[in-house]
């Protein structure tokens, strides 16, 4: 995200379609977090379940697509450090401060990401693995197999291992996509189909949300911790992978391809992703209700993507790290 995890591309090559998708997706993320604390009621729980099935898979697919040119070159490695590793360290520390102020407890574990920082760490690892996936004949099949197999093991919390492996297929899917795939999604009849699929997905969520434990859509626990056998767990995980991929495609199909008033905001969704958690922590202390939470989510997501916020917090989200690197060596 120079975007909820996608590092910004040069201005001359930016496609408004992807910026539009990232802005709309970060709105879903912020709204989803704001209604999370209201899940005792049926409608908020269903909306939460619905959004969580595909909102992070969407960001991960886009991240994979925009990471296709990643190599182990010095320039790419430096960008990886300055846009993911350093912000991860900064926000791991920053999110530990509210716990100190509110509860008098300070905990900092750099290998066990807290709250929403897991995505930075997972994206760091996924991007490092990019050259490997590009050498395999069936990369998506291997990624899906790894996702399903790791659900059978109690992986450690360090390095967000459960989520990193469980959501890996979406990143690899993004790597495998080509511009022609997105052009196909932009066809007029696909827009109608996408809207129908999203509506059907919401209807299904309203029917099944109270029968599926929330932890399934958080991707952070093995089958045993969810009290199911490996056969059942594998079937559920595979179903969620397919559902996530279908809803991501449907969401992209209805995303405007032309430049809109929010296209420029889509280039800065990483700011909204990393900072909105502080707003959520404060909002949890109030009973806002779903409509107000959604309005607040749209406003917060939009505000945090604006140029003034980028100028003020550039040092934390996109720090200039040239002082920390040796002169770039070229053959």
How would you describe the overall organization of this protein?
This protein is mainly alpha-helical and 331 residues long. Helices cover 63% and strands 0% of the residues. It has 14 helices and no strands. The chain has helices spanning 16-35, 42-65, 74-103, 118-128, 130-133, 139-150, 161-166, 168-176, 179-185, 188-208, 230-254, 269-283, 290-304, 307-317. Helix 10 crosses helix 11 (230-254) and helix 12 (269-283) runs antiparallel to helix 13.
Characterize the overall form. Answer: globular
Q: Give helix % range.
A: 55-70%
Rg: 19 Å
Please provide the ordered H/E string of secondary-structure elements. HHHHHHHHHHHHHH
Largest sheet: none
Overall strand count: 0
Q: List low-confidence stretches.
A: 2-12
Calculate the mean pLDDT score and round it. 89
Number of helices: 14
Question: Could you give the distance between the termini?
Answer: 31 Å
Look at the helices and sheets and give the structural class: mainly alpha
Strand content: under 5%
């Amino acid at each position: 995200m120079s975007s909820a995890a996608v590092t910004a591309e040069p201005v001359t090559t930016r496609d408004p379609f992807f910026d539009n998708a990232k802005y709309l997706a970060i709105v879903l993320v912020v709204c989803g977090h704001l209604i999370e604390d209201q899940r005792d009621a049926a409608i908020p729980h269903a909306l939460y379940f619905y959004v969580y099935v595909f909102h992070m898979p969407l960001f991960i697919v886009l991240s994979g697509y925009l990471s296709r040119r990643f190599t182990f070159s010095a320039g790419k490695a430096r960008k990886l450090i300055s846009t993911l590793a350093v912000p991860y360290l900064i926000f791991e520390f920053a999110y530990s401060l509210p716990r100190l102020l509110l509860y008098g407890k300070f905990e900092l574990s750099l290998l066990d990401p807290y709250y929403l920082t897991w995505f930075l760490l997972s994206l760091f690892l996924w991007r490092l693995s990019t050259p490997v996936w590009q050498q395999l004949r069936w990369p998506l099949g291997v990624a899906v197999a790894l996702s399903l197999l790791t659900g059978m093991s109690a992986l450690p919390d360090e390095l967000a291992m459960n989520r990193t492996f469980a959501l890996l297929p979406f990143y690899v899917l993004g790597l495998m996509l080509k511009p022609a795939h997105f052009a196909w999604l932009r066809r007029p009849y696909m827009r109608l189909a996408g809207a129908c699929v999203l509506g059907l997905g919401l209807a299904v969520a309203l029917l099944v949300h109270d029968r599926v434990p929330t932890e399934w859509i958080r991707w952070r626990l093995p089958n045993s911790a969810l009290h199911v056998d490996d056969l059942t767990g594998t079937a559920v995980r595979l179903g969620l992978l397919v559902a996530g991929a279908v809803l991501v495609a449907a969401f992209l199909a209805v995303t405007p391809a032309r430049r809109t008033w929010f296209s420029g905001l889509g280039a800065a969704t990483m700011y909204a992703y990393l900072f909105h958690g502080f707003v959520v922590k404060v909002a949890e202390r109030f009973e806002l209700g779903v409509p107000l939470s959604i309005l607040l989510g749209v406003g917060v997501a939009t505000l945090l993507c604006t140029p003034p916020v980028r100028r003020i917090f550039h040092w934390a989200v996109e720090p200039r790290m040239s002082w920390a690197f040796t002169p770039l060596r070229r053959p």
